[in-house]
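FIELD: query
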Amino acid sequence: MMRRRPCGSTECGIGRRIFLGGSILGVSGLGHLLTSRSAIASQVKAGGRRVLNIFLHGGVSQLETWDPKPGTDTGGPFRAIETTVPGLRISELLPYTARQMHRLSIVRSLDTRNGDHARGVTEMTTGRSRMPGVEHPHLGAVAARSLMADDFPLPGHILIRSSPGGRNVESEFHSAAWLGPRYASMALYDANPPKFEDRPGEITEDADARRDGVRQRANERFRLRRRTAETEAYDFSFSQARELLANRHVFEVSRESAADQERYGSSQFGRHCLLARRLLEHGVPYVQVNHADYDTHHENFDFHIEQLGEFDQPFAQLVADLAERGLLSDTLICVMSEFGRTPKINRTYGRDHWGTAWSVLLGGAAIQPGAVIGRTNANGTEVTDRVVDHGHIFHTILRGVGVDSLGEFEVGGRTFPIADPARQAIAELLS
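FIELD: result
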């Protein structure tokens, strides 16, 4: 449906130009053609861990979600409701999620000292402070490099989002940086599969195989004299394209049962969540689902009724399904934004950008269920216990899926820290 845009500023537009991120090209490991379905099945049976990141673009309000302050000068009109964790309350706008809180945890003490959309997105998804001229790999690229087997036939870093609608897409936000384009994101728009092209009918399977044999021989002769990262990337992309064709069923959310499609609802976000479940079930190590329009400089409360009304039920259903299907113990869930919203309510009943005291939701894998880390003061204007930032969250996500976030990647004979060495995981949140 057509939405009113809560913010018409240039800065707001930049914040929503999200994320194709690159391509499915690769720089290392020429993909072996294999029996794809059995390869995926073996990945899942091996207990490979995965990350699901729900990114609420624009800056969701912590006061209308995870850290409500009813009855205060900043609290707004909504109540706080009980959850399945005794003593833990969240906003009444999230009644379905409240029933899943025994599987989830909240970090209420983020202080990222940032109110800029682009910088906030970059810092939350790379775990590093943004610096001009310096590029770090996106969380999805790090997770794919760390968790994906060399012979995994699908992209390891998939973004599910709505179509950009003519707006520019900022590729750097899902960049793999020095990890190489193999680990950059592949985007799926509006819950649709990639646009596959079948072999033309006049070309037989045998003719196609002979043609591919000629291509491979020519490539091999070329590599003997001019082996470069670009030639390997091209060869890998060609092989992976063939694997995508062989596994096109993985991306078709329409294959899910009518009952499941009804449970997730008819909204685009509901279909995105169902597609995310399907990808995670097929072993994709990093899936990100975007949900936008949280930049509520005016009519904050009306916008959050609308946006969270669309978010709440499908998200809670996804958490419940992952748990019931035995996937939650190996899937780390994160719900994040680029920042929160100001406790002060402005004259147009909005909340502005706020990076001083806000919240992130985590759960699954090695995250302690039902925990609350940190606290803010009575009206949410400052953190009073356990200050953390984007770097701590990044380390915690990686540690939660078994990655040594204090370790290093070796790329091209050089070593790079996996995460910001000046930060570390939130130890008390990990089991």
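FIELD: remark
Residues 9-46, 166-172 have pLDDT under 50 and may be disordered.
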